[in-house]
Amino acid sequence: MQTKDKVEFIRQQAIKANPEIVELKFGCEVIIKDGKNGKIIYESDTGTLVIAGRELPITFKGSVTEIIGRPIRLADVLYAIKEKQKLYHKDLIGLIEDKMINVMLSWNLKDDNLENQYEETIDFIYKILKHHD
């Protein structure tokens, strides 16, 4: 499986654990009707979204064709792993906590975005979440 597929799997697991990631609000990445990407930087009371990115400064909620969500951060990954641990016997909790510590130690904290992590880190997280899927 390619790294981009593993990133998408991890992303979906994080969204499953925390649906707030794809709420249409500040910092959320979206795709607009014309196929361009942007980030929501402001939402007015009238429903107008101010979007930064590619020749499209302002649009309306109806123009959003796909909600990508915000970037997946370390906290999202750890939360997804923690949510998975609830499904398992208490004897495994120590093992899962050890895995969470390993994720924290391998995460590039200077760039807190899943898509920009080292391939080894992504592979490690993928294996944890896939094993408990």
List keywords for this structure.
133 residues; alpha+beta; 2 domains; 5-stranded antiparallel β-sheet; 4 helices; 41% helix
Can you lay out the helices and strands and say which pair or pack?
Layout: H1 3-17, E1 29-32, E2 37-43, E3 48-52, E4 58-60, E5 64-69, H2 74-85, H3 93-106, H4 119-131
Antiparallel strand pairs: 1-2, 1-5, 2-3, 3-4
Helix pairs in contact: 1-2, 1-4, 2-3
Describe the protein's architecture and organization.
This protein is an alpha+beta fold and 133 residues long. It has two domains: 3-19 and 72-131; 28-69. Helices cover 41% and strands 19% of the residues. It has helices at residues 3-17, 74-85, 93-106, 119-131, and strands at 29-32, 37-43, 48-52, 58-60, 64-69. The protein has a five-stranded antiparallel β-sheet, with no helix packed on it. A hairpin with a 5-residue loop joins strand 3 and strand 4. It is elongated, with a radius of gyration of 17 Å. The protein starts with a helix and ends with a helix. The relative contact order is 0.18. The mean pLDDT is 80.
Class from helix and strand fractions? alpha+beta
Number of DSSP helices? 4
Note the overall shape: elongated
% residues in beta strands? 15-25%
Quick recap of the structure?
With 133 residues, this protein is of the alpha+beta class. Helix content is 41%, strand content 19%.
